[in-house]
Amino acid sequence: MPDITEQTTGTTNRLSTRALVGIILGAAILVALAFAAGRFTVAVPAMPSNTSAEAGFSRDMQTHHLQAVRMSMIIRDNTDDEEIRLLAYDIATAQSQQAGQMFAWLELWGLPQAAPEPSMTWMNRPALDGSAHNHGSGDQAHEPGAPMPGLATAEQLSELESLRGVEAERLFLELMIAHHIGGVEMAEAVLDRSTHPEVRQLAGGMVIVQEKEITYMEDLLAERS
To answer: What's the pTM value of the predicted model, to 2 decimals?
Structure first.
């Protein structure tokens, strides 16, 4: 006949094990519920509209970036200077990736890549604080449909393609400095007009990086003057 003490101990152990399992399962459920509640209560940014600053910036900055990529590829073909070639490679790589990111945003937002209004229209709309907050020379508004800030003309691109060596380097640096200044204006403009976290993160990064590159390019240009 089994010892009653052994039976009691076995029963107690089984009860203790069940209690422990119950506690673990209960804790796991509470953690899962807390996690789910947290996910459901986190604010999800609203999808930008077709005429929003976010959409306008994404379209116009793609155009702006792709010209920088083109100029970078031109200078890489027209000079043997390794410092200039490396700078051009860095610019082309970063800006082509960012252009792809902005293309993807528009797809994610369910918006067309083609704008429903003239370029730069979004920069003329009020900032979040209600002010104009225009950027650039004289703090003047950019006329919708006018050339984007810092964009090189067709004639300037043709000239860059025709030059070689130091002459090509000088013109590239002059054009890219102006291009970056215009890009910073556009990035600062969307920062004044958007609360969308991903847009603000990208635009803020553009301002920091391009301002540093402007300083660097100014030094390179001074060396070639």
So the answer is: 0.78
